[in-house]
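Sequence in, structure out.
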Amino acid sequence: MATPVQAKLSNITDPAHQNAAARYEAFQAGGGGFVERPRVTTRHCQCEADGEDLAITFEQSDGQIESEVGVLELPANWKQYGRLEVVVEPTEGPLTLELIVIGARNRLPVRAELTPGREQTVVLDLRDLPLTAGIRATYEPAAVRLVGLWGGDEVLTDFERQRRLGRGAAEFLEPVQAPPAGPRRIIVRRLTLQPLESETRPFCVDRFGQRASTRWPGKVTDESELVAFRDSEKQDLDAANGPTDRDAFGGWTGGPRFEASGFFRIEQVDGVWWMVDPLGHPFYSIGTTGVRTLDNTIPDGREELYEQLPPREGAEAEAWLAKEYRGGGVSFYRWNILRKYGSREAWRDRVCLRFGKWGFNTIANWSEEVMLDQQMVPHARTTASRDARFPLISNAFADVFDPRWMECLDQKFTEEVAPHRDNPWVIGFFVDNEGPWRNPRLLQAERDMAVRYRWRSYVREQSGDDLAAASRLLGRRIDDWSEVESMGMEDVPSEGPGAELMAGFEALFAETMFSGIRQMLQRHAPNHLYLGCRFVRQAPAKAIVAAAGRSFDVVSVNCYDLYPRPEQFGQWHHDSGGRPLMLGEHHFPLLSQRQLPPLYAAFTAQERRQYYVLFLRRWLDQPYSIGSHWFQHADQAATGRGQDGENQLVGFVDITDQPHAELVEAAREVTANMYEWHMASADAAVSSGR
């Protein structure tokens, strides 16, 4: 058995610990990465050592101090510990103290009300510590944080606290009140890791994939409840009405009429962009990505986290995924689907029924083949310009200057695109996702790759085949053209003529890629739209966006922001040559007892209800907008998806396939009005001269 371990509090005040260190953190837009953080950080508070104690003075409410675990001389691995205790005495004014353990993806918090002059012990139960980690080291948190709150701040939501820090400001939000002023002073006597009281850790995920330690309305506790919820929802859906002015594809029968071509296309009328559905009606694409039962979590080596895993034999064994899919493991969502509906086909039919009643008309990117194999809701398909057959540049881009690339692309599209060329329910194809277009780093290519030969010839062309001119452009002496071919990114100037030369080469690369993809789509699916490459919101160089506009039918951009900012997306529209825009992804993570809060701001159910409508209303007001897709259909696994550990509450439905009521209400409000709202954007198009 482990023994108690007391933190070295005085280390926090050592100036040496202000230095930065790298640690892994999750990002709201997905994935995560290593970021540089000071080992000890403070915000609106002062700290001083008082012998073995630590005196903290909060200058205003929501002041905080955060220390890396290593600074406190606590063990790196907490598997043998059951709780974290802090003994604290407030000396000036009452306050609420937050004790928070910071993991790679989530926060594990507890709150306590402190009374001046009385020493108190605040206890944080570590049962759910693994839920902070995603798929990273399960019991190795990054830091410990202490926060002081008072004067009404105790009820601030995550998003309101972020707004106070200047994040998430928007003209449609009320100003955030300043935090109550301090000081509030506390003395931290001890911070101690206490060992487990038994040799076995309690599980933190139940047999339905839900967080086990907390409760909420609608939490499933028995298999019979899955069936009861299924039948109750079916009655509600049968009694509900979806929008009535829609055709079979979800197009608008109350708007202008176009020629019916039998497939989806785009049209601009009075300055407003529309999709046109196969029947000739205006179509605005709205729905969710990831309508699938394939989101996995990997229990290997951490089986103690789960109450129960699916059986290895029988029908429910389908919940175990093949290792070829993101490492395999378990899909609790699929397991719940099988127990609830009996088959994925029955689940598909329920989703399509829901979408019709909610007003959704698109099964969007990343969706499962069984969901796409239907004729009830249109869908977008996805493919990529690279795979293991292609010569790759730093595992990011295919080497599009290699003649083999078009041959491989032809073969890939023969397999993945051509079978759907005559399907009227296919809106179009996304090709690739969130490539590093702001910094392609093309010269990270291996030696003897075609991109290096093309770079050499490009420099020769731009310098008039003059080594002296090339030397001036690149800011370094070039004695032989082979030196250009062997350059790395560190050899290219970050500004001046050399940077401009690289920008031109990157634009040529983009033009070659996008036009090559379009050529292959025209060959294999001439009736379907090229929906772009799903850029991230921060735009790359204008020349790359212009290259996209020359090849894409629709420029797709993923937007993780409070709302799509017109000044930003108006620039996308302009730089692409006036192409229509689609938002490939957006969402607002839920703040709920269902999961530990993420490292970034999450939203209450009420806030999600409000901001979903505001987000879509502002996007529909843009005459160049043509659709928007929520990421994603179902909440992610509490213990993190296989490839990167994402474990967010971002679904329209939860892990047991129960819809989040606030999002359904918001979606119905949007879809009931979206065509009229977007038609009204013609006024904006006229006033701006578009």
